[in-house]
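Table S4 entry, SLC13 family permease.
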Amino acid sequence: MNAETLWVLGLLALCIAAFVANRPRMDAVALLALLALVLSGILDAGEALAGFSEPSVILIAAFFVIGESLVRTGIALRVGDWLVDKAGKSETRVLVLLMLAVAVLGSVMSSTGVVAIFIPVTLSVAGRIGVSRSRLMMPLCFAGLISGMLTLVGTPPNLIVNAELGRAGYEGFAFFDFTPMGLVVLLCGVGYMLAMQGRIGGRKEGEGAPEKRRRLMDLAREYRILDRVHRMRIEPDSPLVGQTLGEVELRKRYLANIVSIERQRQFRRVMLRPSANRELLAGDIIIIDFTCAPISVEAFRAELGLSESGFRDDLSRELGMAELLLPPESFLIGKSVLDLQLRSQRGISVMGIRRKGEPLGENLLREKLKLGDTLLIAGTWKSIRQLRSQSHDFLLLNLPAEFDEAAPALRQAPFALIGLAATIALMISGLVPNVIAALLGCMLMGAFRCIDMESAYRSIHWQSLILIVGMLPFALALQKTGGIDFFVAALLDLVGDAGPRVVMAALFLLTAVIGLFISNTATAVLMAPIGIGVAQELGVSPYPFAMTVALAASAAFMTPISSPVNTLVLGPGNYRFVDFLRVGVPFTLIVLLICIALLPLLFPL
């Protein structure tokens, strides 16, 4: 072992120690290591910076954007709805369904992309069923890795090993040759995660956390509007049908304020702005705020041909509320709510007023506003967002927690599905490289207005990308200095005379260990010819050895840098380096035992 090899291995050991200590940040450690490799002369600048043009890095960034598009159009939350609907409040059922869904989808497209898409879904589901995000993020990660074991195209290492078989003169694997092994590993993975419930790590989310944000229901209670707001359907015989809001004069006649109008359009329901020239149709659903109405709600419904309609659970994803504060220079001071014309000009309605901390209960629409008043306003989240840039006459206070769950591009959901389907189809077909398919998917999301450029850049988790880019040069450094060749030769000398199963176990362990430090694709490139060569020397079938390499390359469960999939969930799951070691090492050994037990049966030696 030469001095250069010792230097690279020593630097790698320092990085691992820093990762375990979590000081400094992992992305900073990766960049420092990159600089050290260049300054020591092991790599030149071009070699060290090659990770910035690595297709897998671009692929990850592209799927962050696609994943954010699914969130902004509400699709990610719909998947969460399905999971919660099927699983209820059961964490066990959520975990099982989540792992199965991710594994199946990841078997025909990038596992990294699938995990990136499901991260916001998982965060939403965790919050809605009331469990720590760390209890679901690790199962999500493991399912993404296992998905690469289910089909020939599940992950690049499978294709690399398959190509190496062809170069050695053997017939390659069929599309579903990996499936039996992958299904066994998946079932064991689900069982393992169920057994580990409550013991999956992650820093406690309550430590140092800010005060819990108020929700819409909290605002409604504080302003005492719960009994005033009703959701009603316009029946076909209603006198409101065919009239505009300006013509019916509900505010003047009944002191009833129309907050929103819902209308069915083809296969979806849309939220319409309640402007004065908006015509009302039969079947429309209106949300009405009765501000001291002179007649009872029952008499109001009977007179206007309306029927009560319950509030939808998902209404808060389209319709929201927020508080406005009047600053000293506001021109709104001294004017009444009716004078403001907020509904006609900005698409929002005033639901309540608080003065000196107490809500006002009567004549809200005609109440003259005073300095320091806070107004509870309601409208679509889009209208509320637009108020953020208009702070001269009022200040938009802290938004409720539902604001983060709202889908600003809800109407573009069908187009987002088209973009996602096109991306997956291109990946499955192989017409273009995966990274090009992902970039085309990003362009489609932008063209369909599922996401804007500012949101696209914000959606990319740059810390994860920098960590990956900084660690990629180690693969080349280990190859150039002979470090990998040294350990491979030593291991073959150690077990070369043992039985085939022992050699397979050694091959699996060596592949898994190398995969701790370099990408699973590079690991497969290095280990595939070695595995096939060992089988030829032993005079046995190369197929179990080749598949051992492929499965071990995908079994990157042990550290957060073993795979981009692990790196993606590191931050959202609030994990530390040691959490992956504690959970990942035992499961890697389980996968090893499965390979040794089943591969010789599926592919006789």
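Confidence is low (pLDDT under 50) at residues 203-211.
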